[in-house]
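Annotated sample (chain length 257).
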Amino acid sequence: MRKTLAGIHVLVTRPKHQAENLTQLLQSHAAEAVLFPTLEIVATDNEQAIQSTLQNLENFKWLIFISANAVNFAVQANGGKIPALSQTQCAAVGLATAKSLTEHGYSVDLVPEQGFNSDALLAMPQMQNVAGQHILIVRGVGGRDLLATTLTARGARVDYLEVYKRSVPQLDCTPVLNRLKQGKLDIITATSVEALQNLLGLLGTENHKLLFQLPLIVVSDRIKEVALGMGFKRIAVTENPSDTAILDTVTTCVMGS
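Output written by the structure step:
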């Protein structure tokens, strides 16, 4: 039985600024991490509006951060800090988001016990009886509307604070295309639908058949469903969105359970 991931080439599509930890984990297990950041995360151009909202957080019952990016870009837009909370409670969708909040000095009042997505947060008891509450969701431009739609249906008043946006980076695709055609890619990892969409767009329709033959590791059932619709056939879902869980799923795909 294989004892390491030696000789395994893993395509890492995470945004560049988020790929370092996963890359190091893969390399520590002798895999080769092939960096191909198909998604770029950048700040929005509404810094003044962000600052104004963050200076008036007492208007909200709940402040919900969708991702670590939401935390970091909010902090960045507000000069490196977020005002202290008094009456407002703070929720994080997942553990990485909660960790980022803690690192910036925030006390996290609510984080899902498992699942680590909008559905899991909505299932928490604190999110059930929200009628009349004013809730602020801090996120990227064009994110999922499930959280806001559900909370609104439960009677809450929901506003968005969009602090970052996603774009397709300018990449030299030739090295990855060469690897794909030469059979030197073994596994693809993707942590968002946008990353997968951009991957297909960047590598061209004529190469999709080769991509679809590779095992794909994703971090949610929702991404899996989209990937199946795209044409991917061999898809594994991680236990949670963490880099460690991605590594564990890569290992299981290679070595078997």
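Annotation: The chain has eleven helices and ten strands.
Annotation: The two ends are 12 Å apart (CA to CA).
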